[in-house]
Amino acid sequence: MEVRDKVIWITGASSGIGKSLAQLAGQKGARLILSGRNTARLKEVQNTLPNPEWAHILPLDLSVTESLQDCVEQALGCFNRIDILVNNAGISQRSLIADTDIAVYERLIQVNYLGTVALSKALLPHFIREKRGHFVVVTSLMGKFGSPWRSGYCGAKHALHGFFDVLRMEHQKDGIAVTLVCPGFVNTDVARNALVGDGAAQSRQDQATATGMDPERFARKMLKAIERRKMEVYIGGKEVSGVYIKRFFPGLLHKLVLRSKVV
Q: What's the distance, Cα to Cα, between the start and end of the chain in Å?
């Protein structure tokens, strides 16, 4: 399946992975709906596209779940259909469990898990009616194994895998596909925007993220997985091996992660 002429709705499209994916899909002839909280930055992304008129801006805040049904109706009004929803928006964390307020965990679950679930559920009836549709969910390698300083982030990403694995099973009969995309370290602002223990933003880059994969390269690999309708894909550097080490040698992975520099 090629994305040319497909209608792709991307959340978290104002920067990082979402921005790079939008630019690449736009180059390939996709129609785009760009969502996020920062309208000005979304417009900047729109203006970098080869055909800006093929992209609509739709502001969206995943933490306000009661607004998401209206957002879906607005999105469907842009091109009268949606072929692919890319659930990319989210927020990370950099704090130890003992130092983290429960409100931080609540926000991580609200944005990364419940907001994503609510948006997908609101769009699901459209996919069922059309007997086709594709949910793409950007989770993380942290949805497959854990790492210090990211306890709440890991928990929310693990939850996404559980939910969307079941959605795939229940709605395969309706022609609906689910692709879980698990990034490793990607050089974006995810670390700068990550929440620390009191809920403030970390406001600085960390070494592991700064030396991560270029987001444009990541987007190329991600789009290939979308076009092939992969069920699950791991994209990153040597950290990807953690998925397989966890499966066969969990004790070894525990030791390796403890020795690694993750912040």
A: 38
Q: Give Rg (Cα) of the chain.
A: 18
What pLDDT, on a 0 to 100 scale, did the predictor assign at position 140? 98
Residue 105 appears among annotated catalytic residues:
no
* Catalytic annotation, pick one of 105, 113, 153, 234: 153
pLDDT in tens, 142-156: 999 999 999 999 999
CA angle 219, 48, 203 (to 5 degrees): 65
* pLDDT for the residue 127: 98
Give one DSSP letter per residue of 214-229, joined into a string. Answer: -HHHHHHHHHHHHHTT
Instruction: Give the residue extent of every domain in the chain.
Output: 7-259
Q: Looking at domain 7-259, does it have CATH number 1.10.1040.10? A: no
Half-sphere exposure of 18 (CA within 13 A, CB side): 31
